[in-house]
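does this look right to u?? flavin-adenine dinucleotide version
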Amino acid sequence: PPFFTAIFIIIRLLSMIKASSKPLDVHHKGMKALGIAAKLSVDPSAIEAASRDFGHIVEAIPKAVLHPSTPQDIVALIKLSYHYSPVPFGIAAKGHGHSVRGQAMANNGIVIDMKSMKKHPNGTGIRVSTADGLYVDVGGEQLWIDVLNKTLEHGLAPVSWTDYLYLTVGGTLSNAGISGQTFRYGPQISNVLEMDVITGKADVMTCSPKKNSELFHAVLGGLGQFGIVTRARIPLEPAPKRVKWIRVLYNDFSLFTRDQELLISRNGRKDKNALDYLEGSLLMDHGSPNNWRSSFFPHSDHSRIISLIIKHRIIYCLEVVKYYDYQTENTVDKQMKQILQGLSYMPGFMFQKDVGYEEFLNRVRIGELKLDSQGLWEVPHPWLNLFIPKSQISDFNNGVFRGIVLERNITTGPVLVYPMNRQKWDNRMSAVIPDEEIFYTVGFLHSGGFNDWEAFENQNKEIMRFCKKSGIMVKQYLPHYSTKDEWVHHFGSKWKVFQRRKHQFDPRMLLSPGQGIFNNY
Ligand code: FAD
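got this back:
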């Protein structure tokens, strides 16, 4: 009878609610026994901070936030979850929280505020070694800007970077870490010698290409699924002093990409005539030259650049850099001239700068501070980052840049487009890239208002639909999917290995639930 059915449904619902809140009691005796109770915070401000990220799109509320002082605190927390009955609670390492889709969140679970370890002298910190090779041992919680500053004190630096340096080592190594250096030096994940990792079974393991290599390869580009990186050993090289920094403009996409591909074909690590950095971007009415990357262009040239944009609607900007130091100071201009000889950019549209190495690497910071002062940094960021095979980049330009983007006419913020070489990546790692030797990264780095960001999201969806319909073999970078099928498709031939590694290193599936691959606590 309906009455009994209704009662049954109510009892069922109540028991489901109880079950879903059962997984985690922050006052559980295990927390005390393991010595982490005092480091767990349920303070509303800590919970609120752990519920959001740079994207300002997703919100997931954890039960508590762990402020570890040592890796042992993380071991204790994972151990507790691993043995928690009847189901473990989700645990997310939060680096600098610069994900845009809740990847560092743990709904009803515990977020580890990795940056707390920076405050403690017993942590890994940043330790430069010059005794047996040049490298730096860095805590997973450290920001790349701090790594740069510390290594420069020794006249050394890592070779592979991201555009923006206020990201943690653990956070970028969980993705790949790409920028204009990638075509020559590989992504950051190709520049790691060894790591200390706490797995989802609370095992502390040192891994490298030779030792525990399965874990090493799993973690790099592994979206936080296999373990928490507490130390990474990054190789160093003598740091250059200054950089020659050049931008040239194109109105023809095929000439722009032809020149980019020509320039990245010189990519030998020791090749003195290779560039050190190459990127590219779109200049459009909305985005430039007044956005945060475009302070590069002299003010006096703005009006003629704007006229170009009005005429062609999209202008393609190639950006290259050659490092130099005191020994190469006299030859760098000649070298740069030789490298750029024969390129097909628009005559009269070459712009150059000569700046310190650190100023160049930290270039995005100025834009951040400017936007922040205008209240435009902590806003929704419906970003879309893609990898596209070289053979299909022209279709992408026609259908997306010159199609969807111009039709919708809403794109603000930088749109990046530049190629890289697959040979500089290691296919044993978890990171997913297209199958072709040269592929492009395209980044739509939108900033939206709190009320209108969905328009960008709709554009992103239309772009993905277009790629699917046109057979463009696109892969997302910093991927975000909502169904298991999409994840399986994303990993393609790597899915089976990814899944096997998950069962091996995090069998109870408690790590990085915010990625939404295996679980969604
Ligand atoms: P979080 O957002 O805190 O975490 C990201 C993921 O990594 C989560 O799943 C988290 O659980 C996991 N994680 C965090 N720490 C650890 C750890 N120690 N061990 C294991 N897993 C961990 N990316 C590029 O490649 N190139 C760029 O040029 C670039 N520029 C950017 C510019 C800006 C302004 C922003 C906001 C992002 C940019 N990114 C870039 C993306 C960035 O690399 C990723 O979002 C990265 O994850 C951010 O690092 P985070 O410390 O904020 O990580």
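Residues 53-54, 92-99, 103-104, 114, 140, 162-164, 167-168, 170-172, 174-179, 223-224, 228-229, 478, 512, 515 surround flavin-adenine dinucleotide (CB under 6 Å). idk if thats expected tbh
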